Amino acid sequence: MNLNSFDELAIDLGPDINWAVTNNSHGIYRTLHQEFTEVDFIGFVGSRLEESWEKPRIDVFSRFARERVIHFALILQNIPGMDSQESFVHEEAIEKRREIGFLATKKLKDAIRQYQHPLRVGANDSYAMGILEFLSRNQVKVPEEVKVIGYDNRNEAMENNLSSFDLNFFQ
Question: CA angle 90-124-143, nearest 5°?
Fold first, then answer.
């Protein structure tokens, strides 16, 4: 595996931020190759509004899917009632992201059952918590039937046994 080729995963957000994004992408990519070798479907959930910080995350998973020749579904939805970037800790924004995660998983519920080893990815832990909520309500076993990953390693994720990328770990 040639780690230098991962530079294309980064968005140019300035010298310091670009390095951090590239470094995070390397770490996540390595983790996918080590821990998710059986995955045959990836569904990524995020929003159009927050594309600037989601794009590097999407790029890692879409590249992994292309290289493994597995199905990749990207669902980006607008966050209702939000017309500008909000702080990711803002309670209303967190709840709306959970709702999007729930509704996006509902849209892909047939795809989840169609594959043997599906992986659902939330652009952050709030989206992923919505994914977990939908799966729980529909008696889908996590991680036995579907694996779920989030980002940011929030307390809520740890309390609910959500696998979450801690981006500070890779820096």
Answer: 130
Distance between CA atoms of residues 163 and 28, nearest Å: 12
Q: What is the DSSP secondary structure assignment for residue 162, as one 8-state letter? A: -
Instruction: Give rounded-to-5 percent helix, strand, coil for the chain.
Output: 50, 15, 35
Q: Are 77 and 100 in contact (CB under 8 A)?
A: yes
Tell me the average pLDDT across 123-130. Answer: 91
**CA–CA separation, 117 and 54 (whole Å):** 24
| Dihedral sign computed on CA atoms, order 37, 41, 45, 48 | positive
DSSP string, 110-156: HHHHHSSSEEEEESSHHHHHHHHHHHHHTT--TTTT-EEEEES--HH
* Single pTM value for the model: 0.78
User: Phi/psi of residue 76, each to 5°?
Assistant: -115, 120
pLDDT at 75: 87
